[in-house]
What we know:
Two copies of one chain form a homodimer.
Chain A: E1 7-19, H1 26-40, E2 44-51, H2 56-61, H3 65-68, E3 87-90, E4 94-101, E5 121-129, E6 132-140, H4 153-170, E7 176-182, H5 190-199, E8 202-203, H6 204-207, E9 210-212, E10 242-248, E11 252-261, E12 279-287, H7 296-350, H8 360-407
Parallel strand pairs in A: 1-2, 6-7, 9-11
Antiparallel strand pairs in A: 1-12, 2-3, 4-5, 5-6, 7-10, 8-10, 11-12
Amino acid sequence: MEGDPTLQLRVFDLNCWAIRYLSKRRQERIQLIGDMLRQERFDLVLLQEVRGAKPRAVHGAVPELCHVLGICHMETPVLGVIGSGLCVFSRFTILDTLLYQYSLNGYPYMLQHGDWFCGKSVGLVIIKISGIIFNVYVTHLHAEYCREKDAYLPHRLVQAWELAQFIRHTSKAADVVLLGGDLNMHPEDVGIRLLRGWTGLRDAFAEAKHFEGCKDGCTLIPSNCFTIKTELLPFPLGIRIDYILYKAISSFTVKCEELRTTTGSAPGMDIPFSDHEAVMATLHIRRQGEAASATLSTAELALVDVVTEARTEVGVGLRAAQRQRYSTGRLAVLALLLLLLQAAAVLGTLAGLGGQPFPKLSFSLLAFLAIGILLLATGLHLFHTIEVKMLQGTEEQMRMVLRALQERPSDG
Amino acid sequence: MEGDPTLQLRVFDLNCWAIRYLSKRRQERIQLIGDMLRQERFDLVLLQEVRGAKPRAVHGAVPELCHVLGICHMETPVLGVIGSGLCVFSRFTILDTLLYQYSLNGYPYMLQHGDWFCGKSVGLVIIKISGIIFNVYVTHLHAEYCREKDAYLPHRLVQAWELAQFIRHTSKAADVVLLGGDLNMHPEDVGIRLLRGWTGLRDAFAEAKHFEGCKDGCTLIPSNCFTIKTELLPFPLGIRIDYILYKAISSFTVKCEELRTTTGSAPGMDIPFSDHEAVMATLHIRRQGEAASATLSTAELALVDVVTEARTEVGVGLRAAQRQRYSTGRLAVLALLLLLLQAAAVLGTLAGLGGQPFPKLSFSLLAFLAIGILLLATGLHLFHTIEVKMLQGTEEQMRMVLRALQERPSDG
């Protein structure tokens, strides 16, 4: 077995920002992406934010792609009105797929942000290459809108946790695990550390022998003409939020030979492929006698720390959600009381009890206002109720995991 | 290993019909269920349709339950407004949990049916007993409202398929797999055959050495005072739609020693525990040299047949959904045209072009009607669009699996 040849796998990952009606110069960029994919002939292509005529749009742009790459789209829509936006092409036959929806997806009052429409699920694609089983995951987590006052952090942590749990539970039979996607978190963020710690996945950028591309591997850079400059003000080099992560489970090793990113505008064009930069990794996979499981116990100790930290953050989010649930509930009750009062006044006047009639216009306006507030507050109350339960559920799961980790520190 | 003692596991499964505001005599029945669970001391309790103060409601009714059973609730709410309604108690420490949401959940115009509020997800609970890893699944699939003209069949098939896929993908490291729940399908239905064939799970009722309870193991019986008698008219004995299924994966065997159901009213009471009967199984688990994998190739052939049959049904549903998507879309366009026509007429009158003014009341009524139809038709159109994509996705997955099955008939 030791003499097995090395398997080379070239992986492409990009948040395409190809949402119909929302993304700028979408058709043109899809065409560009298609052309590039046709030239480069990657083994695995993991795309996010492909919404609309996808994956036919990408197919259409690259008619050969269906033949060149083994075909596969994973544009299975989810419960909401909106699909997952995930799309996978593989040069190897896909054996099986599974889509998992996250429970929390940000606040409904952030509709203006395009990626609220995506970022809801993680897709699993299983392929087998030369007898090696690959579990390939693609996902898109929640964006962060304001780093200083990041109200989304608990939601992203819940998603990172669910992603890690989904990978752990579904990759037990895999030889190699790959994860690509827009995780919307900086490399040192607690969510990334939680994901890495809890799944054992390694960051291709940190492990790569050769790197070529934007400084520090950034994937959202100020020189890309589609990025929002004000959001990147605190980060003059840009930020790294798109990742390729990997690990070998059984007796295999994975090494990242090369990692590349695009650097703004596409070669010879005036526009980039997307507002994100693409991440391209060349991985070498080898069969090996023993899986490399170095310093397990220290890793476990670090894991306890990161899960504890994540649980604290989720707890903070939980208490905020509980306060919001309470205040929206109280607002709804107040609006209802106002309406009842008005109804009583109207009935009183009709029954001839009251003295003067009310000024009709302001009375109706007040009623409309009360109804509006009632509906809005009830909707928000329901939303925050779900949020509270979700955060509670995650906190409980983390508590359970921490207990298990502390009871048996030698059992990964 | 051969001499290992037999492990006995007592499993309880019940659709509790405990949805706040919707279910009759809910508190009273929860109390009854709690009392019974306290007396019987099962190892695993799998409940569905527990919605409201649950699982505290069940805890509250049975204060000791938290201590007696190892505690665990899995009332993690899902994306919709409504929680999963699933609840698990285990006498053994729960190592980990995962909740998976189904993509399709019936038609929105069936809101009056209580179980539309549940039946959205499958929960996985992992426990370890004497070194044996148990993956315990609990779920609640869609109800069937009319057996003759079952418009839901494709939706239930999609759910059965997703359930089977979820179990397959997450149970790779388990020694024993258990599934309990209200599957809302008769034993011979294509969905049950698909689930059994694709996961290898066996039906505790069919395998039980001793059986005691309702004739044919029925779990929805006419003599239960809460069942809807007209729905059971074609089935004088009742129907069997609640199941406990199991299988051993690695070198273990599972045998069902005894299966029992409740038979309507609770002992000494005038009301039953629920509108469903509970299913109680006593399982014997033994370590064994070799997993019993008899007649694999004939099973595979049967599997190809059942997947083909399911795929045909999903295809029928797909074409129906495509027709509905088309007709609701057309209706929306017509309503929009009517509105535009009215707007043009109003503008014409305002500009002093037209002759007579319109009768105001009927004009406004028509406008309201058009707006109502527009909103409704657009909503339905969106729903059917999602439905079409979902059914397409499932059909595609089944096609992929069939290809894989036919290519390698000896590989389970």
